[in-house]
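In this supplementary section we document a worked example of the pipeline. Step one takes a protein sequence of length 429 as its only input; no multiple sequence alignment statistics are reported here. Step two produces a three-dimensional model, which step three serialises into structure tokens for compact storage. The input and output of this example are shown verbatim.
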Amino acid sequence: MIDPKYLRQNAAAVATELARRGFDFDAGAYVELEEQRKKLQVATEALRAERNSSAKSIGQAKAQGKDVAPLLAAVKDLGDRLDAAGIDLSAVLEGIQSIEYGLPNILADRVPTGLDEFDNREERRWGEIPTFEFDARDHVDIGSGLGMLDFDSANKISGSRFTVMHAGLARLQRALIQLMLDTHTADHGYQEVYVPYLVHSAALYGTGQLPKFEDDQFKTNGEVPFYLIPTAEVPVTNIVRDSIIDADRLPLRFVAHTPCFRSEAGSYGRDTRGMIRQHQFEKVELVQMVRPSDSEAALEELTSHAERILQILELPYRVVTLCSGDVGFSAAITYDLEVWLPGQENYREISSCSCFTDFQARRMQARWRNPTTNKPELLHTLNGSGVAAGRALVAVMENYQQSDGSIRIPAALLPYMGGLTAIEPMIGY
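The serialised model returned by step three reads:
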């Protein structure tokens, strides 16, 4: 969250900053609550001081054998007044906290101003868009022709926005995941971690999915509910929650492969065909925790690591900087990698790489010990998909499709495919 001290001192300026996102922050209402808090805290402290002073006077009077009845009468309702002031103060503090937890991060200065994805700024392109001597098909038609992409069974088992994959296609996704993990650990120096897929609400508060995105989460119905993770960002980033990291351990770089679960609330009617927008999908996530002075360079590095996967696979893509109206709630700045999909004749997001500055760290109390001051300070956190496995599978299917309906295996994946050089239609399908 935004530094409360900065927010109190600069509420109007923060409102102006957040307006770039299209977010309406009522600075006046916040300042009014802050004034109430100050008055109530002063009044509460005064009542506590009066209580302590009275208790001392009564004790002295008793010791001297004096009649304490008048003193007791004078403070008869002091306890009730103190309780009432405490209740009022708690209500105001809850209101302030609710506002603070509901505010998105302040954007980096270099984020372009805009309303939505159409205002994002393209930074660069890589690779040549493929040409075909036949009409390019999308991944749904390719997978159905192979007999390996089965939406009917998935619908029977779980409903819409789920997928069953068979044989070579399932192996191809596994190969993609293994390639990503091997590249990020061996070449980029990330530590692989295995994390829970079910988390408590505190973990989602820490990274900013709660309270704003409650409707996007799947959760259990127990007395203390668990939430299915929407991304590995949640459990991996929370590894450092309530911690103070020694400076010589930084930067921390973690990579994790997990399934991800999203209700896709509000997305009905969008990308209903195929695997682009699913309730369950696989992702390899990159997470970094760094010194604040290193976070800008770390974002460029992390983005290049995600790009490297697409380059190894020889998939054409572009990098865009998200505009102010398209940046996620917790991020200060985000690069999206968009891979070319011949079946859609368009670039589609395959990775978002973000710097969160100290926004998540403040919510999690994730800190490092600055050797110069020997005091704990907030970390900066970053993450990005390295990359989304399902969308990488879609991209390989469409960019490596052949006229006979088969899929040629990219050279980088051949070591993972057990001798297969192409995925052919299932025999007897």
